Amino acid sequence: MPMPMEYRHASRDFDAFMEDLKAVSMLRTSHQAYTMLQAVLQVFRRRLEIDQAIRFANLLPPVLRSIFVSDWDTTEGVLPFKTRQEMMAEVRALRHNHNLSTESAIEDVTTAVRRHVDEVPFEQFLRTHSSDAARFWGYSSAG
User: Which InterPro entries does the record associate with it (predicted)?
Assistant: First the structure.
């Protein structure tokens, strides 16, 4: 089997994603955008069972998939979805002295990610997981 193109072009595609995320969030550097991205992905990951998280990760492009699973303590319990403000506090807690996440970090990241995934299976996963998961990613809970 030949090397999948998604791996051959992973760096190029990730660079394009980061430029998109910077544009959506109006952050100036990739370092700022990366911390925000990592934090939002971790906040969402904490609300999934391991099998759900792996299924979700497989919907992401390779570098985003890697970021999603990196530094994962799989012994932590699953957290419930909370208010947007409470989850934003979690986002800001990652490397808090160097975290310049926007006030709309969750929306900024989810907007950029949705532009870089196959929308149909991505939305199907979220809608079958929970209405909270769908809302986190900007989908209405009805569906």
Answer: DUF2267 (IPR018727), DUF2267_sf (IPR038282)
